């Protein structure tokens, strides 16, 4: 084993409680960072879902010729702002109604298909397109009226929902960022203290190494390796705990949010998301460890 | 090998060395003697580049330390072996590891360490103590460890600062015999000492200092 690794491991072995403190703080930091990242992802997906989800329903006038309906449907399908255009006949509308009122069959029996208008349903790729498209569709001769998905309570309430989600997402990102930043700063300070203590304890060794011609890089190497060990181990452990936690909670989250993809649905995408988070955290850990240890060494040297 | 030309070293108002000039040739074994505070250790520190002269020139193996940049100093020190009165061995490493550190410092490939370590430990008579820690060694063995570490890097010049200062006569004598043997192999040795028994027994050139001045060279 390389002499610097051996030396670094020796430091860890000789001061187990310092090592434990450093690892614990870094694990906590990366655990929270992983959760905040997942939360950021989920809130983004939630926002994206509601931004792209709005279903515009164009209720068609009665007795409109099929070719005119088909023409409007083709026109909408060709529009780049629109997606998933679907024709819903009167019978299908009744069926939807019956499904929606299945807990009270009497409601379904009291209506006939004729009272439900046929419609063209579609969603927009971005909420900002909605108003223009609605205005354009309203101008069509075959269209009686236009509305948003009933469950959302119409155009204005949808905007409110999206606005609220945007605010929540922003708060999650800013709040999470600040919290993770504070934890990262704590980790940095803990690393700084531990490395500074190490340098003070090693004063005699550093002096001897200086006298036998060790370069500053040689003297710093075990210190940096030790800090890297804490940071990388902490990053991996924190990430793994968060990953296990998310895996444990994901069935409940998926059940609660239904079709809203707050977490990737397939295993490969889920591992991909966590792989990216781990990669970013390992890089952050390296920066934290190298930066912290070099800063500590420089400070101890300066104060000597 | 070593040349001091009109070297003066002041520490504040204290004049540690005053206009000192001497040369030490390659392969020589020289004693630097003098009472405490006469400037013996200052001379060794100047040779090692630990401190710089206030005026004058110190040249070691053709390198003028005064004009060297500080990043060059470690590389320069790697060519010099140093033995200290207080041994300066790394307390948390075994005898073997203490020697290995010196080899790591000069960047010798790890594959060559074993052979080199065995050679210097046998030379220093530490074959049996190879895996012991400094706390388990006697004063003489600690000094031998320090010497083995200094020799491991195959230095051109060996500096020894009171190497027998903390040892009894018998141990001192055995250490001195080792230095003689090393010198006979062509290494230049500069030893600061005030051990009169050693100076009398091992008749070498003496640079005698009094109050920072060379009184006899």
TrEMBL record, chain A:
Broad class of where this protein is predominantly found: membrane
Domain named FtsX extracellular: residues: 55-146
| Gene Ontology cellular component list | plasma membrane
Provide the protein's localization.
Answer: Cell membrane
The organism's superkingdom is given as Bacteria
Q: Name one GO biological process term.
A: cell division
Q: Where are the transmembrane segments?
A: 20-41, 174-195, 227-250, 270-298
Membrane topology summary: Multi-pass membrane protein
Keywords for this protein = Cell cycle, Cell division, Cell membrane, Membrane, Transmembrane, Transmembrane helix
Keyword Membrane set for record: yes
Q: Does the keyword Cell division apply?
A: yes
Domain named ABC3 transporter permease C-terminal is located at: 178-289
Give the UniProt family note.
Belongs to the ABC-4 integral membrane protein family. FtsX subfamily.
What is the name of the protein in this document?
Cell division protein FtsX
TrEMBL record, chain B:
Query: Assembly and interactions?
Result: Homodimer. Forms a membrane-associated complex with FtsX.
| GO annotation terms (biological process) | cell division
* Gene from which this protein is expressed: ftsE
Q: What is this protein called?
A: Cell division ATP-binding protein FtsE
Q: Which family is this protein grouped under?
A: Belongs to the ABC transporter superfamily.
Which SUPFAM superfamilies is this protein grouped with? P-loop containing nucleoside triphosphate hydrolases
Q: According to its record, how does it sit in the membrane?
A: Peripheral membrane protein
Keywords attached to this Swiss-Prot or TrEMBL record, sorted alphabetically, are: ATP-binding, Cell cycle, Cell division, Cell membrane, Membrane, Nucleotide-binding, Transport
- List, alphabetically, the CDD domains matched: ABC_MJ0796_LolCDE_FtsE (cd03255)
Which taxonomic lineage is given here? Bacteria, Candidatus Woeseibacteriota
Q: Where in the cell is it found?
A: Cell membrane
Check the record and name the InterPro entries matching this protein: AAA+_ATPase, ABC_transporter-like_ATP-bd, ABC_transpr_LolD-like, Cell_div_FtsE, MacB-like_ATP-bd, P-loop_NTPase
Q: What does this protein do?
A: Part of the ABC transporter FtsEX involved in cellular division.
């Amino acid at each position: 084993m390389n002499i610097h690794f051996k030396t670094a491991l020796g430091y860890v072995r000789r001061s187990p409680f310092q090592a434990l403190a450093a690892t614990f703080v870094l694990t906590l930091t990366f655990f929270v960072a992983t959760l905040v990242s997942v939360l950021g992802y989920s809130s983004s997906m939630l926002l994206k879902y509601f931004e792209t989800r709005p279903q515009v329903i164009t209720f068609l006038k009665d007795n409109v010729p099929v070719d005119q309906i088909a023409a409007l449907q083709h026109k909408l399908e060709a529009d780049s702002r629109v997606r998933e255009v679907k024709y819903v006949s009167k019978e299908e509308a009744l069926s939807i109604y019956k499904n929606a009122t299945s807990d009270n069959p009497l409601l379904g029996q009291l209506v006939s298909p004729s009272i439900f208008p046929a419609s063209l349903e579609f969603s927009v790729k971005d909420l900002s397109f909605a108003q223009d498209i609605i205005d354009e569709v309203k101008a069509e001769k075959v269209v009686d009226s236009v509305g948003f998905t009933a469950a959302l309570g119409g155009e204005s309430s949808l905007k409110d929902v999206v606005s609220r989600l945007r605010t929540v997402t922003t708060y999650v990102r800013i709040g999470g960022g600040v919290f993770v930043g504070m934890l990262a700063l704590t980790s940095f300070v803990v690393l700084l203290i531990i490395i500074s203590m190490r340098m003070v304890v090693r004063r005699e060794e550093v002096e001897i190494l200086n006298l036998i011609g060790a370069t500053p890089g040689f003297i710093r190497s075990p210190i940096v390796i030790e800090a890297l060990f804490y940071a990388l181990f902490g990053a991996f452990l924190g990430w793994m705990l968060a990953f296990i936690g998310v895996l444990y909670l994901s069935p409940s989250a998926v059940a609660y949010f239904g079709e809203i993809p707050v977490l990737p649905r397939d295993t490969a995408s889920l591992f991909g998301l966590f792989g990216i988070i781990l990669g970013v955290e390992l890089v952050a850990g390296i920066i934290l460890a190298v930066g912290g240890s070099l800063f500590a060494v420089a400070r101890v040297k300066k104060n000597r | 090998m070593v040349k001091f030309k009109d070297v003066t070293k002041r520490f504040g108002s204290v004049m540690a060395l005053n206009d000192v000039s001497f040369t030490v040739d390659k392969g020589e074994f020289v004693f630097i003697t003098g009472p405490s505070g006469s400037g013996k250790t200052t001379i060794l520190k100047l040779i090692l580049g630990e401190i710089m002269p206030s005026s004058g020139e110190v040249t070691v193996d053709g390198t003028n330390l005064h004009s060297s940049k500080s990043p060059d100093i470690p590389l320069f020190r790697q060519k010099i072996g140093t033995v200290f009165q207080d041994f300066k061995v790394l307390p948390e490493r075994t005898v073997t590891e203490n020697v290995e550190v010196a080899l790591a410092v000069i960047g010798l490939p790890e594959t060559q360490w074993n052979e080199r370590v065995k050679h210097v430990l046998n030379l220093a008579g530490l074959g049996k103590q190879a895996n012991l820690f400094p706390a388990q060694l006697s004063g003489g063995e600690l000094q031998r460890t320090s010497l083995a570490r200094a020799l491991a890097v195959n230095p051109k010049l060996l500096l020894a600062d009171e190497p027998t200062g903390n040892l009894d006569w018998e141990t001192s004598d055995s250490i001195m015999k080792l230095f003689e043997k090393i010198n006979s192999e062509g290494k230049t040795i500069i030893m600061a000492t005030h051990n009169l028994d050693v100076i009398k027994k091992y008749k070498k050139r003496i640079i005698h200092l009094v109050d920072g001045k060379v009184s006899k060279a």
